[in-house]
Amino acid sequence: MSDEKEKAGKGEAFKEARELVESTQLRLDRARKISDEARYRIQEELNALRQGIERDDEEYVREVSETIEMLAGDHLAGVSVKPVWREYAETIGLAILCALILRAFFFEAFKIPSGSMEPTLISGDYIFVNKLRYGVRVPFTTQFVLRFAEPERGEVVVFRFPAEEAREYVAQERARQIAAGERTRGDCVTSFDEKDFIKRIIGLPGDVIEGRNARLYVNGQPLERTPIRRAPAPEEQGKTAFYSTEKIDERTYQIREDRAPGRYDDRRDFGPITVADGHFFAVGDNRDNSADSRCWGQVPKDYIKGRAMIIWMSVRPPDPSYAEPLAGDEQGDGRFRWERFGLKVR
């Protein structure tokens, strides 16, 4: 019985010695910040241990193993013995986890799919949105657990489209227009999918918003507007766009219209509308080409994801119909708009 125990103990010692050789050799090969002298000494001891294992010299193997463990502790501390594939997998996994945490709580990247916010944001812009601006929400829900601030007039925000409220509002508004004998405005929204929208906040809870003579009125006062230029519309050849600056509170920004100042379609008049508690009135800067609160109703506060911060990349749409006037690229070929990189969203 004692002979069997002795053999088992010897076998375990040699198994541990082989594992020590394998792991220490791997750590030594990966080590970068180690002196040549220390590297040479450890390699010599590893070679000696291999020889002792081949000679089946248990006492020598135990002695050299102790020496290697001491040297590894002095010179190879912190060097991983994990397989390379596992290290890559853990690194990639950690990066994905960090990205998910950043996306859920701090920042999220969005692509601008249309021209409804032109000229502030144009199709092909990629922006970062500050999701901590208004508070911390439960990831992938509209429920806030902590609030920091409320949206302000003039801020550009990203929000989840309130599909159910919008569908109900559109139906009620159409019924009201028919009952009053007014001209219906057609289908201002063609889809009630719960996707992300980006618009500018114009009305806060309790504000009275009205559209009259192609002007927006907030609490009975028209927003200050100054025409600045006219230019070819980027989305269609032969079409002219008219640009103005508009000011609300302390924020000044540019808007676009398809009609010259002084000309308007009274079918676009609306209101007055009182913004409901816990809701906001949001419109696009491209006033004649935006489906917004004028069309489908107000934005619930809990649906607002965050505030648009900065344009981190911008790419010209690879669409022949997109007529952005750029020298040498009249048709648009998907190249970068370098001049828009880093622009702050105002």
Structure classification: alpha+beta
Low-confidence spans: 325-333
Strand content: 25-35%
Order of helices and strands: HHHHEEEEEHEEEEEEEEEHEE
CATH architectural type of the largest domain:
Ribbon
What would CATH call the class of the largest domain? Answer: Mainly Beta
Largest sheet: 7 strands, antiparallel
Task: Compute the CA-based radius of gyration.
Answer: 33 Å
Number of domains: 2
- What would the principal axes of the Cα set say about the shape? elongated
Roughly what is the average pLDDT, rounded to an integer? 82
In CATH, the topology of the largest domain is named Umud Fragment, subunit A
Q: For the largest beta sheet, what order do the strands appear in spatially?
A: 1-2-16-5-6-14-15
The CATH homologous superfamily of the largest domain is named Umud Fragment, subunit A
Q: How many helical elements?
A: 6
Helix content: 25-40%
